[in-house]
Write a structure and sequence with these properties.
By secondary structure, this protein is mainly α. It is about 60% helix and about 0% strand. It folds into two domains: about 5-70, no CATH class; about 80-130, no CATH class. It has seven helices and no strands. About 10% of the residues are buried.
Length: about 130
């Protein structure tokens, strides 16, 4: 890895990714704005290469891929004593049984007026954890 890439990763990218778990669910325009920072840095380091080629040469991922990876690790490492545990892991357990009940009790979902809750990191990535396992 060239020295310029090391400097970028240790100084600039750490500032861009600071607290990325908190703002993981960015809109596409904000995500593109962050990606543009990395694109600009790599275009300075590798002026004659495209962004995807520069990523391959430098051996680093897109910022979006790194955010998703960190969020999935964050959700996977939540312990049962953490207050967020009930938001993530309780939803993941499905009630599977061989008998039929007259009135199956379902978990109460929080009352929501917008889709913000569904896009909240613990819910969004908690569901992907279920899909990946």
């Amino acid at each position: 890895m060239p020295d310029n890439v090391v400097v970028y990763c240790t100084v600039i990218r750490t500032m861009v990714e600071y607290a990325s778990v908190v703002f993981a669910n960015l809109s596409q325009t904000l995500s593109n704005d962050l990606e543009r920072v990395q694109n600009r840095a790599l275009s300075i380091i590798y002026p004659s290469y495209s962004y995807t080629d520069a990523l391959a040469l430098s051996g680093i991922q897109t910022l979006r891929a790194r955010r998703e990876e960190v969020c999935i690790k964050f959700i996977a490492n939540i312990k049962a004593s953490n207050p967020l545990y009930s938001l993530t892991h309780k939803q993941l357990t499905a009630l599977n049984h061989d008998y039929s009940l007259r009135s199956a009790t379902k978990e109460r979902q929080p009352i929501k007026r917008t889709d913000r809750f569904e896009n909240f990191i613990t819910v969004k990535y908690g569901k992907t954890e279920l899909c990946n396992s």
